[in-house]
Structure formats: structure tokens, C-alpha cells
Amino acid sequence: MTTLYGWGPMFGCPSPSPYVMKTEIQLQMLGVEFDRATADLDAVSKHKAPYVEEDGEIIQDSNFIRAHFEKKLGRSLLDGLTPREQALSWAFERMAEGHLSAVMAGERWMNDENFRKGPVQFFMSVPEPMRDQVCGEIREGMRKARWESGIGRHSREEQLLLAGFDLAAIAAQLGEQNFLLGDEPTGVDASVSAILISCATPFFDTPLVDMVQAHENLPAYMRRMREAYLPERVWPELVAA
Question: Which of 7, 28, 207, 216 is most buried, judging by how many CB atoms fall within 10 Å of its CB?
């Protein structure tokens, strides 16, 4: 029995976490049958989702989940790709997850209005008298981490400019293809499409929405991935962490 732990539809997305979406897609690409359950971040050592439980073993982080099942099944989401395509796959995954995702997260967590309508929902189980303090401490920790990583040292306008470079690169690589590396989806599509879907949700007030929509090929690309891999009404009702 394999269970994917994460969260279902929220913030106008199939999941509030692009990494949960990524893993959900990649498990399907690998042909893994799995159930879905709401994550309990206090139950795992890295305190992050997604994580997978398989026959009592916990596998954490989307990259290690993929590697675990590729090794177990004796097949890879890179199968059939040339060495150059494999390099492109890894480079675009890292760009989307390490850079574009950081800008997207900043728009949700560092913007007061967006935080109040979105991420604050994760803290509704905290007693109201303590909620503001807890949220403030969490956000301050994130602010420090973003400063130390470098992205938080840029102004919002500069961060969005960098995101624009990322989006232009993705759109250029996609071109007139159905997917990033051709007519069939591969592992990189799971990662990149999940980040794009997270950026483009109109639930949040952010220029990222129009920036994604400005590329004619990206909305149809996101739609193809959602229709193929992210069905509605398959997750249990969200339980606030």
C-alpha cells in the first residue's frame, strides 16, 4: 500500500503545494497506484510535504520519492531521453523549483494581504489569542531564510523581473510542442507545470498571474497537464495543520 501525503484543492490550485502536485503527477507517470491522505507535518522528520508511506517506510521530499520508485520499478522518467535532454530536464526542474518557486512563495507569504487570504488558513487550529504571534514568528523565520538564500535581498520588482526571465525561458523551450521535451510528457513537465499552476492561480493578487498568461503557449500547457494528471475530488477534505 502506497499513500501520498499532502493537501488537495486549495487557493484555486489542485494543491496549495506545487511539490505535492509534482509528486502526484510523477507517481502516475511511473504507474504507481496510491491513495491520498492529508499530511501531518509534525509526524515526519523534515516537517514538509509531500511524503509517501509505503509498507511502513516513510520517503520524504519529491525528488527522493521519485528516486525511490524509479529504483524499485527499474525505470526512470528520463528513459528515452538523450543525454542533452536529460540535462535540460534537470536544469529546468532546478530553475523552476529553486528560483521561480521562491518568487511565487514570496508573493504568498511575504505580502500581507495575500498571506491573510491564503497561508493563514494553515494556522486556524492555533488558538486565536496566539495565532498572530505564531504567524508572525513563522513569517519572520521565512523572511530571514529568504535573505540568507539571496532572493530576499532583492526588491519585489527585482524578484518579479527574475521570474519573468524564468517564464520566458520555459515558454521558449515549450515553443509549439505539447510538452517541454516533445509530444509526450516527461518528469520535467511534472515539476514545471506544478510551479506554473501555482504562479498562475488568480486566488492571489500578484503580477505573476498576468506574467504567465502573457505567454500564449503556457495556459494551454498547464491545462493539458491538469486534465491528464490532476483530477478533481480525489483528495480528502483539507484538515488545517
Answer: 7
What percent of the chain is modeled with pLDDT above 90? 93
| DSSP summary character for residue 9 | S
Using a cut of 0.90, tell me whether the model's pTM lies above it: yes
Is the dihedral angle over the CA atoms 181, 185, 190, 196 positive or is it negative? positive
Identify the CA nearest to 114 among candidates 21, 223, 31, 208.
Answer: 208
Q: How many CB atoms lie within 10 A of CB 157?
A: 8
C-alpha cell at 237: 477534505
Q: Which three cell numbers stand for residue 25?
A: 503527477
> How many other CB atoms are found less than 10 A from the CB of residue 9?
16
Helix H or strand E encompassing 220: helix 217-229
Q: Is 113 exposed, middle or buried (0-12, 13-18, 19+ CB in 10 A)?
A: exposed
Q: pLDDT digit string (tens) for 116-175?
A: 999 999 999 899 889 999 999 999 999 999 999 999 999 999 999 999 999 999 999 999
- The CATH-assigned architecture of domain 2-229 is Up-down Bundle (1.20)
Rounded CA-CA distance 17/10 in Å is 9
Instruction: For residues 187 and 169, give the distance between their C-alpha atoms in angstroms, rounded to a whole number.
Output: 18
- Taking residue 22's Cβ as centre, other Cβ atoms within 10 Å add up to 27
Task: Check if the beta carbon of residue 235 is closer than 8 Å to that of residue 13.
Answer: no
For residue range 182-211, what is the model confidence (pLDDT) as tens digits?
999 999 999 999 999 999 999 999 999 999
